[in-house]
Write the C-alpha cells for this entry.
Amino acid sequence: INVIEVNGPVNVDEVKGATWATEAYFQYKLGKLPGGMCLGGTYAFNNDFAELNGQFQIQPGAGIVLPRKSDSWCVYWNGWQYLYSPDEAPAKIDLGNGKPDMRGFGLFARLGYADKDTSPVEWSASGGLGGRGLIPGRDNDTWGVGYNYDSLTDTRLGSVLNLRTYGQGFEAFYDLAITRAVDLTFDVQWVESARASIAAATVLAARLDVRF
C-alpha cells in the first residue's frame, strides 16, 4: 500500500498535487495449479486536470481553454492462472523476476477503468496466453501471445483531431534462452492507432539480451 506520509495535523487544502495509490495482491491454487490477482486504484486530489468533454471557454490572457477539475481516479484488476504445468508448484510464485517460475502455460488478463472526465482512455482491457518450455528440450524458452483494446473517451477534442473511439493491438513473441546469460527474442506486433488517418501497422523485431 502506498500512502502519503505526514507528521502532525495537515490541512488537506494545503496539499497540492497529491495522489493516493493502493494495491492488494492475492495468490491461490486452483487444484495444484497456481494463480493470482491484483486489485488496485488511485485517487488524485487538489490537482489541476482538464475536463476533456467540457465546453471550451475564452479566458482573458489565456485564450481558449477547457474547464478544470481538481480530482481524478482510476481502478484496475489483473490476474493470471496456470492451465498446465509438469512441475510441482512452489508455495509462492515470484512475480518480480520477470520469468515464469514453472514450465507450462497459462492465461493472463487485465482490466482498468478511469475517470472519463479527465482521462483520454475510459477503459482498457488486455489478455492472452503465455508460458515456458513450449518445445521439448527447450525448457527455459518463454513465449506469449496477447491482445489489447483501449476505449477512448468520446470528446469534442477527439472529434476535432479525427480520433477513433478505440485503439487496439496484437503481439506475439518467442524468447530463445541461448545460455543462462543470453536470450534472443523474436517479436511481431500489429497496432491500430486511434488516429483515423493512420493505417494499421505491422512491426517485426528481434532483440539480443546479454547479461553480465
Observations:
- The longest strand covers residues 18-30.
- Helices lie at 156-160.
